[in-house]
Amino acid sequence: MSGHGDTQHKFTNRLINETSPYLLQHAHNPVDWYTWGEDAFERARREDKPVLLSIGYSACHWCHVMERESFEDEAIAKLMNDNFVNIKVDREERPDLDTIYMNAVQMMTGHGGWPMTVFLTPDGKPFYGGTYFPPNDRHGMPGFPRILIALAEAYRERRDEIESSADGALGELKRLDRIAQQEGELGYEIADHAANQLLRTLDPVNGGFGNRPKFPPSMSLQFLLRQWRRTKDASALNAVELTLNKMARGGMYDQLGGGFHRYSVDEKWLAPHFEKMLYDNALLSRVYTEAFLATGNEFYRRIATETLDYVVREMTDRSGGFYSTQDADSEGEEGKFFVWTPEEVVALLGEEDARLFNRYFDVSEMGNFEGHSILHVDEDVDVIARLMRAPRERLLEVIERGRPILFDAREKRVKPYRDEKILTAWNGLMMRSFAEASRAFDRKDYLEAATRNAEFLLANLRRDGRLLRTYKDGESKLNGYLEDYAYVVDGLLALYEASFDLRWFEEARALTETMIEQFQDAEAGGFFFTSADHETLITRTKDFYDNAIPSGNSVAAAALLRLSLFTGEDRYRQIAETILRLMKSTMMRAPSAFGYLLSALDLLLASPYEIAIIGAPEAEDTRAMINVVFKRYLPNKVVAFAPEADSRASRTIKLLEGRDRIDGKATAYVCRDFYCESPTTDAGKLAEQLGAGK
Q1: Is 114 a domain residue?
Q2: C-alpha–C-alpha distance, residues 632 and 628, integer Å
Q3: Which terminal residue of the chain has fewer beta carbons within 10 Å of its beta carbon, N or C?
Q4: Peptide linkage before 213 cis (omega within 30 of 0)
Q5: Residue 598 · residue 605 · CB < 8 Å
Q6: Are 525 and 600 within one domain?
Q7: Mapping DSSP to helix (H, G, I), strand (E, B) and coil, where does residue 472 land?
Q8: pLDDT, tens digit, for every residue of 473-523?
Q9: The predicted structure's pLDDT at residue 691
Q10: What is the 3-state secondary structure (H, E, C) of 289-345?
Q11: Which residues contact 620 (CB under 8 A, 6 or more apart)?
Q12: Are residues 208 and 290 located together in one domain of the fold?
């Protein structure tokens, strides 16, 4: 423990040399923290001590609580330092470790979460674990000091039991990753069964699935939207619309600044956990964009663009990278930045306007959150206008005028802390959302955000053709994981379709080859979480389940299917199909964990549209063709473009081969299922070939 010459802090530990904001938050704890690595384990072996592994992330409320209560407490820190070698991990930087040890904690306790506390033998095998531990015994929970003393004693005196428990846990963990291929064809009955299962758990009043807490089910909604498009089953579309409407009108959506909070603690989407995560806003802006294309509902366009505008305004680095998260707390209080009292609104809008504004957004003396009010919308404008005996236009005008005024006033408050590390995978997700929205909404600024992001990632988070995981303060580090490759490939393919700049297609294909070479399990199928040359951990996991973000295998499957359509390479399709086969029965059993993979299944089975457009890039007739393709909900398609038959694009993308303009006009070629429509120079004809919007 240093601390010499450090006038401001009594303690400084090894974490002071890290770039992760989460690790730096613990750099002045009296705990003798190590980062994950050989140094820590070498010491554990030398001193014959167990390892205390603590995993969390910077936007995690209870992580902050446990730090304040236990890791800053000198007496608790002494127990930790005397009896354990202590390792701190940022789960966002090291999802490989988080996955392994979270599986272990869930097996041991039946549930998991963060902060996560796992006790390991000096060779990394887990023997005890849990989540948050209080600093003293309460609510029937043993306090952290009692746990530390008991485990240190058990390690010294009952070593055999601990070793056999650790070996048993390791055996179970290894078994988790052995999944056999399933027989039989991949057919629509998988999707139909999964959709029925999902719809059974729909909350018919508030939308979403299951009870509280409610997390935004963006991937399940994307799948149900596809299901509706194929089957015309109104109940699938109703579930999507109900959920999108309720989420966007709830307190989980930031009614002033745009963007979504992490999740709702109640079933009505009213009171959120106030942190904002980049990945939620990437996934949700995408599903609202798709819902707009599917329904034409302008409300969905508004929510998608406000969310993307929020990301541009608050989550984008000058260099083009996207930041990770914003905290729930400011000034030590959860949600303080976001809540209001009626008096504050009156002071800004005046008595009369505030009366209407407060009624619309449910700001009251009593409040709806710890004596304050979270802005949310319970009733339609028409209903509130009637109740308040105000003309509808007047109420709308008050809302339109009031929102920016409150937003500007809120900007003067102390802002929540922002984690400014840039994670490759999450950036790939966000890149795709900006790219697709740029086409849907004709927003050149969104295309620019996606392009700058791709340039940033490839310049700063790629070394010798390999992706790295994280970037902060000019430093990039850590081996990329499967999700980093899959999400970036997926984002680059979307960026190619948004810009028709061939560079992005070529980069996507090169990264795909690296992904296959480094991560594929050629024997059993699917992709491993870590690359072939990654450090050796206690087990090499495969992740198929969507959690807060889609699994690397799901995104890889969808991206490989798209690449096979562009290139005619059947190898890509076969690898994707293997992933779908591995998860065939599990998708039907637990559809809420496979929304993204079910959408990939839909892409595989759907006879996707393969669309080639040849024309002068800036010409009016070319633009008309492009608009016909991108202004409708057409989830199963790939689109390629070349200025003429013999261009670099035509030589690179099989879909463009031998295609040329007819009579010098922009020409579209539509194929599906090994069959091609006759080429057309007429945008109206192209719309017919694409099913006239259906």
Answers
A1: yes
A2: 7
A3: C
A4: yes
A5: no
A6: yes
A7: strand
A8: 999 999 999 999 999 999 999 999 999 999 999 999 999 999 999 999 999
A9: 87
A10: HHHHHHHCCHHHHHHHHHHHHHHHHHCECCCCCECCEECCEECCEECCCCCECHHHH
A11: none
A12: yes
